[in-house]
Amino acid sequence: MTTNVQAQARPAQKITSLPPALILIAGWLIPGAGHFLLKKWIRGLLLFFSIVSMFGIGLALKGKVYAPNTAELLDMLNFAGDLGTGLLYAAARLFDLGQTSVQIAIADYGTKFIVVAGLLNIIAAVDAHSLAIGRKAS
What pTM was estimated for this model as a whole? Predict the structure, then answer.
């Protein structure tokens, strides 16, 4: 019983020599990249395909991609969620993907898919950072 308690009390070990900030930024810019850098291949692939699929489904459903220049509180929060997708958001803005306003009923679902993809990507990047600094075991 004591060995189990001692094992739980020890902090996790760092699993990489890369700077944790690099892991965090890479994980934000490219979904799953933080986990790839930590050699967590399966987790990285699952995150990559999940986030890219959610973003793509959102665009296919004619979801809105929010711009940063709005005064509405909910629009600013949705923009923060969209921005969480990193380079996917940049590509959507660069190639003028996504709608500027919701025009059909299912487009609202698409908008939520895009926002949730960004939020999931932020959580994944923070998870990779936690692994990199040794706060989380695995």
Answer: 0.87
Measured CA to CA, the distance from residue 110 to residue 106 in angstroms comes to 7
pLDDT in tens, the chain (138 residues): 555 555 555 565 667 789 999 999 999 999 999 999 999 999 999 999 999 999 999 999 999 999 887 788 988 999 999 999 999 999 999 999 998 777 888 999 999 999 999 999 999 999 999 999 999 888
Copy the structure tokens of residue 43. Answer: 């987790």
- Tell me the Cα Rg of the chain: 18
Residues forming a β-bridge with 64: 99
DSSP string of 41-68, one letter each residue: HHHHHHHHHHHHHHHHHHHHTT-B---S
Q: Which H or E run includes 117? A: helix 107-133
Q: Specify the amino acid at residue 45.
A: L
Find where tokens 């709608």 sit. 99
